[in-house]
Amino acid sequence: MISERSFARSFDSFWQELPPLLTPRFVAVFNEAYEVAVCDPSGRQLSFLQTAAGVERPDIVAEFGFQLARSAQERGLASAALRDEKSLVAKAEKEAFELIQRYEGGPPAGIIPLTEVERSEGLRLCERYEALYAAFPGCPAIEFCPRLRGAGFLNSSEGDIGIGDSLIEVKTTTRKPSGRDIRQLITYMALDANAETRRWSRVAIFNPRRGTLHRVEIDSLVLRLSGGKPPSDVFAELIGFAESNEPTIERKF
Hints:
Blueprint: H1 4-9, H2 12-17, H3 24-33, E1 35-36, H4 58-75, H5 86-104, H6 116-127, H7 129-134, E2 142-144, E3 147-148, E4 157-158, E5 161-163, E6 166-170, H8 179-194, E7 202-207, E8 212-217, H9 218-226, H10 231-244
Parallel strand pairs: 6-7
Antiparallel strand pairs: 1-8, 2-5, 3-4, 5-6, 7-8
């Protein structure tokens, strides 16, 4: 069994056939054409957030910021109020460390506390999620970590955030969305369709670091990338591949 992340990073020959038009040229178009403005509470568009000097574990800090945002949303707290919620901050830090360990597949290790600089950086990232929510007017329901049932060699998984009719993948990086990010979104949609739920009609990529949101309608995206093949057929092919093959990860040398 493998994760949706590993699946999106591997099986290049399969991915070249399933959505043959998912090319570097399309990714460049995606980054340009599908970006949606994301603004802070004062109405100013979010800018790039430089990594603070002294942040040595940006992956754990990013996950820490996500877990803080999840705690704030689930408890109805403003992000700024979390600075006084010591127990919630400690819980988010512990969860972030454990999740990164799980993603990396390494042996269990002792938790090394975040530094004050790293903790402050996570809180700054957390505050940017409120700008994400504001990009979806009408107060749609917000769900962190919606579950997706696995299929074949694909493990069950969790999306990052569901807001109304959109499933949002969070990528706290300095880079723009990549082809592998789009592969991951297609995988989520195939799993959702296979479970006959079809909870979302749009997918999106939110980057708290860059202050960007890219959002697109699922069916139009898949139609374009597959060269006109019905999305239901594309999703069925992906699930069929996962159910009829061994989970051998392709290695590059």
